[in-house]
Design goal:
Layout lengths: L1 E7 L2 E8 L2 E4 L11 H6 L14 E3 L4 E2 L9 E5 L3 H7 L8 E4 L5 E2 L5 E3 L6 E2 L2 E7 L15 E8 L2 E2 H4 L15 E8 L1 H4 L6 E6 L2 E7 L7 H11 L7 E3 L21 E5 L5 E8 L1
Parallel strand pairs: 6-17, 8-14, 9-19
Antiparallel strand pairs: 1-2, 1-5, 1-14, 2-3, 3-4, 6-7, 10-13, 11-12, 11-17, 12-14, 15-16, 15-18, 18-19
Length: 280
Amino acid sequence: MRFVSFEHRVHQGFGLLRDDGVIDLTGRLSPGVVTLKQAIAANLLATAAEWPASDSIPLAAVRLLPVIPDPAKILCIGLNYEDHRNETKRPNSDYPTIFTRFPDAQVGHDQPLVKPTASERFDYEAELAVVIGKPGRNIAEADALDYVAGYACFNDGSIRDWQRHTSQFTPGKNFPGSGSFGPALVTPDEVGDYRKLPIQLRLNGEVMQNASLSDLIFPIERLIAYCSSFTTLAPGDVIVTGTPGGVGDRREPPVYLTEGDLVEVDIGIVGCLANRVVAG
């Protein structure tokens, strides 16, 4: 199944994506459950399978929001593909590199990706996002995938000069609307073995990043186990698993995003996240 968060006229909620429509589930799976994060926490997603399509809203009539608009935590993994680690000339590490993004730093599918006025070094990063489905602390790797509610595409848009002001990445990863998250949460039963997923980024139709999720240095099971060792993971929390080589900042000459560019993150069955760049 595929779930989206959306706005329709003055209404904001979540629903089941089916064909070219959204079945609005806001407040319907259970009284008071009005966000996708709440539905995940209440373990209600499975009950949506048989929901009738009679109340479907045409997909073209809604504005898609980030898959989880209100996550408590967005934990992003850096340097998690060998070709990207090599192009950045960073050393090997026994542990994942982790930084955080704030909720307002993301937009949804087909929404404007905002290039900040503060920089000309706005870069793309294709990534797979993992959404946590139930609370957990000190999760064993063998059990980690049981804690996954679903997967989505993510563009970890990066303002490279701000990212390098100090050794901490946070400023360059959190300009409002500089990343994107969508189109939908795809449940694990539909995805199957995540290691078989391709991951590709296209800029104005040209392939810039092309890899497989089997190339992750730290697999998803390890990331969930490690993150849960220092913080309690909660339903709706997001772990963004890292980007392959081919980022614009490391090309010769560098390639940065400019107004009007179309950026697409394509992860096979998980979907294709597309955004146009606008000036901030």
